[in-house]
Amino acid sequence: MFEFDKNKHYPKETESRVVVRFQDCDPLQHLNNAKYFDYFFNAREDQVPKLYGVEMIDFIRKYKAAWVVYNHTISYIRPARVGEWVRIMSRVIWHDHQTVLIEYYMTDDNKEELKTLLWTTMRYVDMAQGKSTEHAGAVKEFLLAVSEKIDIENTSIKGRIKEIKAKL
């Protein structure tokens, strides 16, 4: 279970390096649009335990609540191609008492070309009642430790694409 350590540095961003598989591509040898979601979610699921020492299932078991996706916003910028090595980054860019916004993006292996940007918004839901509930305990500490805290009221996905491209 996550235990906040005020003396520890918590990286704000996860990163994975993966190869685009033939089976995940369309006839044009581009990563199938739906498969981007699998690549993003699998990368984050692999990296969160390594970086933060917590499995999401531990939060679910202890707090009897889970995050439920209610919105995706995705921009496909450049295709990822069969056999290509890519980098996948993810980070919590905003949260409040019951919602999180996770940003995922994919680049080429050298981190020079942005391929895709995904925002996934999730609500924290009590599993017994099926209703929104507030982040509490270690969940709240975890989010405070790892969030970027981007001003999403004044940021659009198009704006984030420009920001990320400028940093590459």
From TrEMBL:
A Pfam family cross-referenced in the UniProt record is 4HBT_2
**Which residues belong to the signal peptide in this entry?**
none
Keywords attached to this Swiss-Prot or TrEMBL record, sorted alphabetically, are: Hydrolase
Q: Where, if anywhere, are coiled coils annotated? A: none
Query: Which Gene Ontology MF annotations are present?
Result: hydrolase activity
Q: Which domain of life is it from?
A: Bacteria
The name of this protein is Acyl-CoA thioester hydrolase
What is the species listed in this Swiss-Prot or TrEMBL entry? Cyclobacterium xiamenense
